[in-house]
Amino acid sequence: MNILFTDATVLPMTAAAGEPQTFTGSLGISGNRIEFVSASAADAEAFRAAHPDARTIDCRGKLLMPGLINTHCHAAMTLQRSYADDIALMEWLNDYIWPFEARQTPDDVALGMTLGIVEMLLGGVTSFVDMYYFEDRGVEVVRRTGIRAVLGCNYFDTNVEEVFPQMERALELAAGCDRIRIAAAPHAPYTVSPENMVRGKEFCRQRGMLFMTHAAETVDEARIVRERFGKSPVQYLDGLGVLDDRTIAAHCVHLDEADIATLAARQVVVSHNPQSNMKISSGVAPIERLREAGALVTVATDGPCSNNDLDLFEELRTAAFLQKSATGNPLALPACEALKLATVNGARAMGYAAGELGVLKAGALADVIVVDLQKPHLQPIHDPVSNLVYCAKASDVETVVVDGELLVEERRVRGIDLPKLFADVAEAVKRIKR
Amino acid sequence: MNILFTDATVLPMTAAAGEPQTFTGSLGISGNRIEFVSASAADAEAFRAAHPDARTIDCRGKLLMPGLINTHCHAAMTLQRSYADDIALMEWLNDYIWPFEARQTPDDVALGMTLGIVEMLLGGVTSFVDMYYFEDRGVEVVRRTGIRAVLGCNYFDTNVEEVFPQMERALELAAGCDRIRIAAAPHAPYTVSPENMVRGKEFCRQRGMLFMTHAAETVDEARIVRERFGKSPVQYLDGLGVLDDRTIAAHCVHLDEADIATLAARQVVVSHNPQSNMKISSGVAPIERLREAGALVTVATDGPCSNNDLDLFEELRTAAFLQKSATGNPLALPACEALKLATVNGARAMGYAAGELGVLKAGALADVIVVDLQKPHLQPIHDPVSNLVYCAKASDVETVVVDGELLVEERRVRGIDLPKLFADVAEAVKRIKR
Fold first, then answer.
1. What would the mean pLDDT of A45-70 be, rounded to a whole number?
2. How far apart are CA A230 and CA B121, in angstroms?
3. Which chain B positions have a beta carbon within 8 Å of A327's beta carbon?
4. Which of helix, strand or coil describes residue A240?
5. Which residue in A84, A115, A327 is closest to B379 by CB distance?
6. Which CATH superfamily hosts domain A3-66+362-413?
7. Paired strand residues for B399
8. Which of A61, B59, B336, B428 is the most buried (most CB within 10 A)?
């Protein structure tokens, strides 16, 4: 499909800090790539002449930007959203989450992921990194909905022999679909043995796959890993040789200076989950120190059980607020840098080369969103980037394009019957809880 | 106007903790009061028979709850929203905020407040406590828009002689409009002399008015007050005799145990502004310790310069997250308690008697909102209160009634032409910045 967006406030995420971040202009998509981004009316005319069939979308009063990238998520856990809040951790796991998960079928997981993807698309998330089980079913859901994804096959020592065949199947199912990448996802340093951790990374290295794990999320995890291996979670993972620029480490809350230096030196992708860390009292990740050290920091929602939504605009805002609060420096994580976590840096987390995703420029993949600025909470517009980070809501996203396909238009998701989806979800949840 | 809401998930905010918080039922409004709230279809029929002219609003799949109450705000500062973020405090004040405010006319302030009120109504805020200048003009805006308000006439030592006549005029203009209350609002313990602080409180006591001030917001304020008066801000205010249950103290971040005990003993209204406190690195208010001590805690957005929006749903969520994060206890400020800050407690802050506002019960003032639950981020519904606090967005509010008047219907604000409002705001801002 060819699409021409005209008269937009364009935020390409390619300007240097201190330079103007936006301009008024147009953007053309042909196939699954951005063909041009320009302030010149002549460029728009040339695109129209070359693609007379192009769909034109008038963006007066609207902002055009790269789609947001959510680098850590358990999308199918929408089914457990607000199922058991404000109760103690062990009661939560023993009496609610684990029994619920034990009764879920692969169909339920696919349904939950569908709901999560619909929520994310409506909030301007065009790419996500998932970590759950039955990711072979996830491939089908991602193919059907059209979103871009890295699907991490989550395993523990207890189920590793079941998950590896699922991962092989997911790889086969995803073959030929460039939007989908499969990853190995050992749960955490304290739940997966060194052997199984390394086995996953080796599997990934042989196939050029991404690798991910939770790391340094809680005080308890750090204590257990230190008792067992005499090291911090990060040093332990580094000692196993699993940390590199194809590894996503989710959370990274409890770090010392050596851990920060290691994460930066190895160019590990740090996935920061501020709302989840706050809600379950995990602590505050040292994001400013990681950024200063040159680490690659991204932002994520985590699962809907500990958040409880998949709203990356809100997460961006919380990331900025939390660093300002925790460091005592109101200049910490400024708006423009916060936005980079969810675009430019997120693209690198997904394994894309610089300039290929997460920016609006000629030749980049066409993952583009339109944000309606004609809302009381976004007016007046002194600074569009500040407005986006400090005021914009998921619900301000009007149009979403992924890989050149128009997936959301006037806030309706392509191919999704919402009342039917909600009814199916309600029925599944009722059956599982019975 | 008579209104009948049918088949709603009703959240009256009257159930005890641990009891079911919601039921399916209907609610009838006659004049400016709630006539009935009930699970019984017969009650709805009786209302319909008694008021055959009543407008019926079908609430299937929707939640009905008391309107939210924002207890500290500078609504007119919408004009400076995102004007100067991520820069140092003194540069922000000297080069941006103060010159901007110096060039604002009373008309500009009225316009900014209109925009703020429109934003709040669309986010389910039915009452707000304001603190700014030209509040005599605020009376006119509140009358026209239909929202409920306490308008605090903000003064410093430098302009007290101008503000007191404005306050007298505001009182005259608000006479006969029960929705509007006027308050004296000395800026803060470090910017207003003891004499002028007491003068404001005396003025209020003589007229039965509310009184408000910023208090214990920053480390610098606490230091200055201690240097000048040898006491903490709270003890200093208490020594002046201005702390009682008709005083709103905004922020209350830097408190010791004695301060907490004093605020609780005097039944001062604590207005907690978590997003503002985070954004400008003020610190974390000890809300859990205040609640344990029996203090009356409420929640607020602060002004759109330090937030940057007036979204109380988001603020509620941040309040809960921040207490969980800061205390290390994931059970801190649970959803149901967070919701009380913005409803039941907010009503007491506004000077209303228990049961008169902030709850859905027969005889209470009819400030009611409808939240559409048929959204991907609000499904499934295991627990409507958790969903509201941890997932709901301002944009999920569909219908808003204040004082029995239907002010928002299908997300359109009565009497407001949004494109014209935005154009007027853009023009005012352009003129002021020139």
1. 98
2. 56
3. 281
4. helix
5. A115
6. Urease, subunit C, domain 1 (2.30.40.10)
7. B370
8. B59
Residues A66, A13: contact at Cβ < 8 Å?
Answer: yes
CA dist A53 and A35 (Å) reads: 15
Q: Give the minimum alpha-carbon distance from A293 to chain B in angstroms, rounded to a whole number.
A: 21
- B280 φ/ψ angles, rounded to the nearest 5 degrees: -105, 20
ipTM exceeds 0.95: yes
Query: Inter-chain contact B331–A88, Cβ cutoff 8 Å?
Result: yes
Which helix (H) or strand (E) segment is B155 a member of? strand B148-155
Q: Where are the domains of chain A?
A: 3-66+362-413, 68-349
Contact A139, A170 (CB under 8 A): yes
Question: A152 - beta bridge partners?
Answer: A131, A183
Measured distance CA(A209)–CA(A168) in Å, rounded = 12
Nearest beta carbon to residue A380 from set B284, B330, B426: B426
Question: Average pLDDT for residues B2-20, to the nearest whole number?
Answer: 95
CA separation, residue B380 to residues A84, A188, A422, B373 (Å): 13, 28, 7, 9
Fold category of A68-349 in CATH: TIM Barrel (3.20.20)
Tell me the two tokens of residue B182.
């006027």
- B44/A133 Cα distance (integer angstroms): 48
Residue in B321, B376, B382 closest to A279 by CB: B321
Query: Greatest CA span in chain B, whole angstroms?
Result: 67
Band (A202; pLDDT cuts 50, 70, 90): very high
Chain A residues with CB under 8 Å of B338 CB are none
Tokens of B309: 């929006």
Residue whose structure tokens are 């920091």: A297
CB A354 within 8 A of CB A365: no
Query: Locate tokens 């003589």: which residue?
Result: B206
Instruction: Evaluate the CA torsion angle B388, B392, B397, B398 in order and state its sign.
Output: negative
Q: What pTM was computed for the model?
A: 0.98
Contacts of A208 (CB under 8 A, 6+ apart): none
Whether the link from the prior residue into A308 is cis, omega within 30° of 0, is yes
Residues B39, B60: Cα–Cα separation, whole Å: 14
Rg of chain A in Å (alpha carbons): 21
Phi (first) and psi of residue A125, to 5 degrees:
-85, 120
Pick the CATH number of B3-66+355-413 from 2.30.40.10, 2.60.40.10, 3.20.20.10, 3.60.10.10: 2.30.40.10
Strand, coil or helix: what is A346? helix
Q: Given an 8 Å threshold on Cβ–Cβ distance, is A321 in contact with B418?
A: no
Residues of A with Cβ-Cβ distance to B379 under 8 angstroms: 78, 81, 115, 421-422, 425-426
pLDDT at B74 over 90: yes
Per-position DSSP letters for B276-318, written without gaps between them:
HHHHTT-----HHHHHHTT-EEEE----TTSSS---HHHHHHH
Pick the closest to residue A269 from A336, A142, A197, A183 (CA basis). A183
pLDDT tens, residue by residue, A371-397: 999 999 999 999 999 999 999 999 999
Rounded to whole angstroms, how far apart are CA atoms B402 and B224?
Answer: 42
* Residues of chain A neighbouring B60 (CB-CB closer than 8 A): none
Q: How far is B321 from chain A (nearest CA, A)?
A: 5
Query: What mean pLDDT do residues B306-326 have?
Result: 97
Of B123, B380, B419, the CB nearest to A81: B380
DSSP letter (8 states) at residue A81: T
Task: Please tell me the predicted confidence (pLDDT) of residue B1.
Answer: 81
Is the CA virtual torsion A414, B408, B76, B272 positive or negative? Answer: negative
Closest CA relative to residue A250, chosen from A212, A277, A223: A212
